[in-house]
Structure prediction request, 90 residues.
Amino acid sequence: APKPSVPNDLTRLEGIGPKVNALLNEHGIYTFAQLAATSVERLRSILSSGGPRFSVSDPGTWPEQAQLARDGKWDALKAFTDTLKGGRLV
Prediction:
């Protein structure tokens, strides 16, 4: 997908920092909608392609978080991320 003129700040999601955000961008994921539509398996593959420093990241909740962000449900996203630690369910 072409890079949108204003990509979303994926670091707003729990478990995604600047380096993971850059890696996702390299693989054509720039928006919450794109991230919400990406399978956890594909996200794991993307992280794996980035090398061992990305092995600590767990994308299991990213599509769900991205769906809430895409839909502008910021209160629901905050409530959900409050139950996470590093993007993982606690």
